TrEMBL record:
Lineage: Bacteria, Pseudomonadati, Bacteroidota, Sphingobacteriia, Sphingobacteriales
PANTHER family tied to this protein: FRUCTOSAMINE 3 KINASE-RELATED PROTEIN, PROTEIN-RIBULOSAMINE 3-KINASE
Designated name of the protein: Fructosamine kinase family protein
Pfam families tied to this protein: Fructosamin_kin (PF03881)
SUPFAM superfamilies noted in UniProt: Protein kinase-like (PK-like) (SSF56112)
Length: 284
């Protein structure tokens, strides 16, 4: 595929340069320069990731409505010769301004106040390159069990990674989730909120990218921020001051982190499998 020609057709502009940039394991990424603007391009194969960018566009649109700071503007989603392309504005990186983490915590809390009648989303989407089920449910423990934990536990069993013992432990934990987690209204969550999925723009403000959204328990986002080292203390202080978490939230983090750990174990194996096994054992 001649990317330059395809982009000129999509953008109806003369493309000066298409520069590959470092990306994740799902998409190829490029910085696209025209005479007037700079764009960010993602490319993958439609046959492998059906509607991937359609779902990403929907996620970004939902975040844009609820998050006070910046979310990339989507130019369009296109298909060409079996490939799908997502073209967005290019965000120039900057340095965090004073009070960045306090502001970020406050704004995430405000975003989490956007609620819905049920947990889930109007369509299935992706987390990383794994399909994510979002069938609506009025009960969080049922939603988390049926749409998040058990599908991946069974996948791990099919892969020969989990034994019957882990399956039984997971099923037992799922029966207890309703007693472990506090009752809360569904909250709009980013769904994959780690340090690689936000940017800092030239004004020193947070920019949310790569969503895996749903209406879920808001502690899911908090758990994800803590999974790979955590954000600075100011972030959590500001969040809890703005939208207090129920007592004991730190002790519940492993339950909320089990889903992203299962995602990573499914995709990458290795030490993530051990962390999943340890989590299941802790609650059995």
């Amino acid at each position: 595929m001649n990317l330059k020609s395809v982009l000129e057709e999509c953008l109806n502009q003369v493309v000066v340069r298409v520069k590959p940039i470092h990306s994740g394991h799902v998409n190829d990424a490029y910085k696209v320069l025209t005479k007037d603007r700079c764009y960010f391009l993602k490319v993958n194969r439609e046959i492998v990731f059906s509607n991937y960018f359609v779902q990403e566009r929907a996620g970004l649109a939902a975040l844009k409505e609820a998050f006070q700071h910046r979310v990339p503007e989507v130019v369009g989603v296109f298909e060409h010769d079996g490939a799908q392309l997502l073209i967005m504005e290019y965000i120039e990186s900057g340095n965090a301004n004073e009070g960045f983490w306090t502001d970020f915590g406050q704004q995430l809390a405000a975003m989490h106040r956007k609620s819905d009648a049920s947990f889930g989303w109007h369509d299935n989407n992706y987390i990383g390159n794994l399909p994510q089920e979002n069938t609506r449910n009025s009960c969080w423990s049922s939603f988390y069990t049926e749409n998040r934990i058990l599908p991946l536990v069974r996948k791990m069993q099919d892969m020969g990674v989990f034994s019957n013992k882990q399956i039984q432990q997971a099923e037992k934990l799922c029966l207890e989730i309703n007693n472990i987690l506090p009752k809360e209204a569904p909250a709009l969550i980013h769904g994959d909120l780690w340090s690689g999925n936000f940017l800092i723009d030239k004004k020193g403000l947070p920019v949310l990218i790569d969503p895996s959204i749903s209406f879920s328990h808001r502690e899911m986002d908090i758990g994800m921020t803590k999974l790979f080292g955590g954000f600075p203390a100011e972030f959590y202080a500001a969040y809890t001051a703005s939208f207090p978490l129920a007592p004991g939230w730190e002790a519940r983090l492993p339950v909320m982190q089990l889903y992203p750990l299962l995602v990573h174990a499914t995709l990458f194996g290795g030490g993530y499998v051990g962390r999943c096994v340890d989590t299941l054992a802790t609650f059995n």
